[in-house]
Amino acid sequence: MLSFNQLLEHVNTAMAALDLNRQPDRLYAPIRYALSLGGKRLRPTLLLMAYNMYRDDTERVMPTALGIETFHNFTLLHDDVMDRADVRRGKPTVHKLWGDNTAILAGDNMLVMAFRMMQQADDAHLRQVMDIFSATAVEIDEGQQMDMDFETRMDVAEEEYIEMIRLKTSVLLAAALKIGAVQAGATAADTEALYDFGICLGLAFQLQDDLLDVYGDYATFGKKIGGDILCNKKTFMLINALARADKAQQQVLGQWLAATDYVAEEKIAAVTHIYDMLGIRELAAKRINAYFDKAVAALDAVSLPDERKAPLKELACALLQRRS
Amino acid sequence: MLSFNQLLEHVNTAMAALDLNRQPDRLYAPIRYALSLGGKRLRPTLLLMAYNMYRDDTERVMPTALGIETFHNFTLLHDDVMDRADVRRGKPTVHKLWGDNTAILAGDNMLVMAFRMMQQADDAHLRQVMDIFSATAVEIDEGQQMDMDFETRMDVAEEEYIEMIRLKTSVLLAAALKIGAVQAGATAADTEALYDFGICLGLAFQLQDDLLDVYGDYATFGKKIGGDILCNKKTFMLINALARADKAQQQVLGQWLAATDYVAEEKIAAVTHIYDMLGIRELAAKRINAYFDKAVAALDAVSLPDERKAPLKELACALLQRRS
């Protein structure tokens, strides 16, 4: 069995070896750029990890791992166009460099390329792999639309938010694990358990992201603190604050959400103060713990000896910054 | 065997029966709208026609026919965003009604939906169908980028133009025929011959479109005459005029291409006059005939009795406005 880092290295090598030198170059240059920006490569590595729990010949499923990563990068590329984002992984976004039209078209091509990579699954698993992958792609698209819909709504319920992040974030982690396990010939019970593990891990990870945006520190979080607060993002934190605030707190929150001219630090401090008073940090931490526990329980249900499951459990702990 | 119109009716019935009532509605409303605008439904009907040459149970391959049509409508939707087109089939475009972001996302979803429909091919043909379809999707994307690149170029060669329309228009007609034939269990020689038929038919059809933009009449063409001339589109007509013009004609053409303030009718008349002098109409007609003849020869090579091939031959004649 290989470690997370060993499998990640295999993924990086295979990504770098992709032949993307087709014509017209104005279409493939942005695709090469988008796929060279790096990132955690978490999803393809998860796929290989799930496969590697059962079998050693991980190179056999590398095309599908690259398909998952190419798909993920397609979603980032189109999301950046929709969000008018200027920067991705510290570099200018594709639409900033090549314009919106080429960004749309390059994304479309990456989506098709992802399907072509998934289609390299062997005959015995082709249909199942394609079904999981394409159903997941539809769900992620639906999650992105929900996310956009939430921007203009003030009445987003926590359940709706959880459903949105399940679709937008969790299902791809879960599908990566499931596609890996399916290709290894795992039982239906095992593949479902791994899928559930991925869903719960994704939910915990996203809620942690919401929490760290308020209470993290820049050095470990890697992003500026308070970004969600400044753009009024309907996170787990804000949704619960709006639901729990008394009249006075509602009014203060409402004023900050409507404000157009303010000092960033003051808005962050004021909103954080309300979160403090309402115990939103503890609420989020509790939910993260609950999802982590559910993830661990799902992994426990996989019918393999503990040592085969250890790398996934360690990864879950590392992602959620836990010791055990 | 069923006629073109009978198969078209089956396609229309199946399209109307698609269940597109998923959530979020803001994503599926534009998809329902885009798929309800109609159009010729030429591509799915071609797929059924190719299948029907060999077998009678055409309903078996209907999901793949709908996949081809859904894919085609995805390309129109994203092309309309890129071209800032306000109208499609006499109705406002999706991005005009719902905004660019939802148009991008709805298109992405339709692309994935198209793959999901193609994945309904039976086990024996699944891989081949998916390979043809996804390779074609990549080519169409490349053709669209070439088309965009041509907008800012004055030195487009005829061969480049033919390659662009092959990718942007012909390969999907050809793939529809091939996917139909593959699922019917046709020989490799037959499926390739049908593919070639589709390529040549598509090229002839596009060149005829270029010709009718200049020399057609509004009643039969269904579009305003001179649209390509007004937007300086690098059509077969303009490319050949630029290549054949003498110095004086070059200068006149150049002035009209650079003009920003002019009377539309005057520009159309002046450019058409140059085409007249250079014999561009006859040149285009000759090329259309040559591609038509190649299409017929490809169809002749299909190893079936003539009566099985008659509907496709009639369709080719009808599309190219010929008597035989």
Number of strands of chain A: 2
Name the assembly state.
homodimer
Helix content of chain A: over 70%
Strand content of chain A: under 5%
Element pattern of chain A in H and E: HHHHEEHHHHHHHHHHHH
Structural class of chain A: mainly alpha
Provide the residue-averaged pLDDT of chain A.
96
- Specify which chain pair forms the largest interface: A-B, 38 and 38 residues
Outline type of chain A: globular
Q: Whole-Å distance between the termini of chain A?
A: 21 Å
Largest sheet data of chain A? 2 strands, antiparallel
Radius of gyration of chain A: 20 Å
In the sheet with the most strands of chain A, the strands line up as 1-2
Tally of individual helices of chain A: 16
**Low-pLDDT regions of chain A:** none
In summary, what is this structure?
Chain A has helices at 4-16, 25-36, 42-52, 62-83, 94-98, 100-118, 126-151, 158-183, 188-215, 218-221, 227-230, 236-244, 247-258, 264-278, 280-300, 306-319; strands spanning 87-88, 91-92.
Give me the secondary-structure topology:
2 copies of one chain form a homodimer.
Chain A: H1 4-16, H2 25-36, H3 42-52, H4 62-83, E1 87-88, E2 91-92, H5 94-98, H6 100-118, H7 126-151, H8 158-183, H9 188-215, H10 218-221, H11 227-230, H12 236-244, H13 247-258, H14 264-278, H15 280-300, H16 306-319
Antiparallel strand pairs in A: 1-2
Helix pairs in contact in A: 1-3, 2-6, 3-4, 3-8, 4-6, 4-7, 4-8, 7-8, 8-9, 9-15, 13-14, 15-16
